[in-house]
Write a structure and sequence with these properties.
The complex is a heterodimer.
Chain A lengths: L1 H15 L2 H23 L3 H33 L2 H5 L7 H29 L6 H28 L2 H18 L11 H6 L4 H13 L6 H30 L1
Helix pairs in contact in A: 1-5, 2-3, 2-5, 3-5, 3-6, 3-7, 3-9, 5-6, 6-7, 6-9, 6-10, 9-10
Chain B lengths: L1 E12 L2 E12 L3 E5 L6 H8 L7 E6 L13 E3 L12 H9 L8 H7 L15 H11 L7 E5 L7 H16 L3 E6 L2 H7 L2 E6 L2 E7 H8 L2 E6 L9 E7 L2 E6 L2 H10 L5 E7 L2 H9 L5 H9 L18
Parallel strand pairs in B: 3-7, 3-8, 5-6, 6-7
Antiparallel strand pairs in B: 1-2, 1-4, 8-9, 10-12, 10-13, 11-12
Classes of the chains: A mainly alpha, B alpha/beta.
Amino acid sequence: MQLALVHARYQLLEIIRIPVAVVGSAFFPAAAMIFFVVPFTGDDAVGATFATASMITFSVMSANIFQYGVGVAEDRDQPWNPYTRTLPAGPAPRFAGRVLAGLALTYLSLIPVVVIGATLTPARVTPLAFLVTAVTVAVISVPFTLMGLAIGYSLPSKAAVVVAQVVFLPLAFGGGLLSAPGDAPGFIETIAPYLPTRGAAELMWSAVGDYRIEPLALIMLGVWVVLLASLAAWAYRRDEGRRFS
Amino acid sequence: MTLARADQASRRYGDVLALDRVDLEVRAGELVGLLGPNGAGKSTLMNLLVGLRRPSSGRVELFGRDPRDPASRRQIGVTPQETGLPGTLRVGEVVDFVSAHYPDPVPRGELLDRFGLGDLARRQTGGLSGGQRRRLAVALAFVGRPRLVLLDEPTTGLDVEARHTLWDAIRAFHSDGGTVLLSSHYLEEVEALAHRVVVIGQGRVLADDTVEAVRGIVGVRRVSLVADELPELPGVVRAERVDGRLHLLTTDADELVRALVGSRAAFADLEVRPTSLEEAFLAITSGTGSQEQAHVAAQSAPEDPAPAAAGGRPTTL
């Protein structure tokens, strides 16, 4: 555990030394917030709160898919990674450290969205709901972390960048993150429950306000978690087998 | 006491047999050089010994345990490839990171001073010169006060001065009782450091002996000349005719030239060149398998026609 923290600390250091990377993961959701949410909320506090929660979901998704998908793929190219496995620790602390660092960066990338939501829109949550939402963020990180790991462990870094970019937009639009709950164009409402983004968004909506979760979306989210976990585990084992067996 | 051991260890990558039933024992206090051309299997053997890879068959052990068990690696030190240092981390941070894995690490300042990096603790590793990075990489092997360090090509690509700094550090560690297994494709490096040399070629141990004995095997020179007929000459390991020139590989070029001149045979355009390690290995490994046999084969050449060459005349040696 001690070592996992050490690994997390140095991975964060490595990322923070290239501030553009951090700014990048926070930029897209913040920009989406400014263009798609701020101009349309007016003084509708409830709508603004839900929209902000959607953007947070969006942010969590893009932060995780990118940092795991691209980060893991890049790490696999570096000889430093096999070196750390000759230290008397094995792969577990590095893996745990990566997940801790990933979670920390996810929270970091949410700050602009939350600030914009609080200052430029009438979005409001109670302190308790804020805490519940913060915890929910960690929960909905799970499917997207797994998706990023599956991409990162199965593809070379150049392909991982492309795939991460290709999957995250359809997931965002298709899951209805850019519309108010229940207010997306018809075909999106039809497909949304089957995408992991929707289940995640519904959890977030119910955390920030009065929203009844659609069971189908939640069941599908569970299916996705199982599916992505198996995919990530398969890719991880295959990669381990190639490089360390 | 044996610190590292390979027992009939083989390693296969797909169709390629990278290591073929290798036996190796590194005992406490030894400084062993692992010598071989690129692609001989040195790195594969190192990877097995540090637990990065599993042998396809046979066994490897560190301190009597499986190297893949992290606890067995507590008393070893390994060098990352120089290109693998995380570029954005500072020198001091990289040392601290590795230190965190050991119960009683060498203090950072002391370690950096020992490798001439004392002034660079605050520099990012991406900004170091190749030599500085290499020294840092080797320094990391010594952070955890290891009993055994495994250095894979520690000085490849270094200038002379940087190489000597590293050699001094390795010697100092050894004279304090440390054990070293170091791979290299430079005979010179192994000669400068090691007491015992294990020669690896095509995945097999070809020789395991003192530096002097191995130098005799691989210190082969190439004597080439233009000549039609030559008398029998001493110390020829291998002979071949290429484009009209006769190439003789020999362990004692002085004696061969003396005998050549003494025989009053007609020849022209004499050249004596050191062979690369690859050539020497090829000479002792190809076909016949051992030096003695190669020697006999070369000396029995008079009855054999030389390989077809310009003129096609039979040549005797």
